[in-house]
Fold:
Amino acid sequence: MVSTEILLSAPYREINHPEIATIRVYPTEKETAKAAASVIAGLVEGNPTARITYATGNTMIPVYGELYLLAERGRASFKKTTAFHLDEYVSASPQDEWGFVNFLRRRVFGPLYIENVNEINGQAVNPAEEAARYDRLLNAAPIDLAILGIGPGGHIAFNEPGTPFSLQTHITHLSASTVNRDRIERGQKTPERALTQGIANIKSAENILLVAYGKEKGTWLADALGGTIGPNVPASALREVGEKVRIFVDEAAATELEIYNFDSTLF
Ligand code: GLP
Structure:
């Protein structure tokens, strides 16, 4: 794994896991986000033309906020990087505020002045063709970093429980838990279908960074890290390529990992 960090000020503790290279626990959500942003900026500092896949979602809002601050301070220029995103709701247009293209344009692609952006077109007339087109772009060269969150049932991107690990970009029907999260918990009228990078795309990235805060995400992560590896918990796939995976969590999420009694070391 490439060493990418330079200035990490916050104290953290490390959880040792038999398969995952790095699991760090930061005291707060803000410190976790700062550390994640520092990894991303550090990678770009070392590789100004890096190809990066960006997740969307609430988890990423403070990460991208911190990333913007680092870029503004001249820590790294994202101009020559190439950006991809993980997933998009079928039918979403760039004008739809609930859409992921919209999210990433506002929070990442615009503020970081990224010139090379590859977006999934949620409005494609033929979503299957759009998935194939996106795979051609993704597979043209290695992805240097995939940035991930984790969602209901341990989903990564929109790979819901039951999705084979072998899939590349594909159309997915969102699980009831995800639809409920969007519609009931978050009050969004989002569609039930999405286009998503598959687990095969994610696993092939050179570096993978997953960020999670809070107790609920901690329970999903605990299932992924402590249970059986398999499609029932999509994030468990990361253990198959654990040597290139970093997981950064806050204390609230880490509490849930303790049931598995992984070793913990203070730094
Ligand atoms: C969303 C996205 C994922 C994201 C996850 C967590 O539905 N498809 O890419 O990582 O669910 O989102 P949030 O951070 O908003 O909880």
Summary: The mean pLDDT is 93.
